[in-house]
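Issue 218. Parser rejects a valid record. Input:
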Amino acid sequence: MGIESVIVWLIVGALAGWLAGVIVKGAGFGVVGNIIVGVIGAFVAGLVLPSLGLNLGTGVVAAIIHAAIGGVIVLIVLSLIRRAA
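Output the parser choked on:
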């Protein structure tokens, strides 16, 4: 994996994490936190969405939407854990 791939990966993660933070109001974690949420969200969505039969296609926009959906799932789970603690 080249440096260009890593940069795109981080940009997609940041955008997806930011978008997830906007959707789940008040759950953003700053720039670095949003990147982490976006990357973890992409992983979670990669596990969950295919089992539900959802295919968003290919491309950068589809990757951002895919990761944002997973980011929303991650943020909802984190907010539920915060409330329980």
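Fixed in the parser; the record now loads. The two ends are 39 Å apart (CA to CA).
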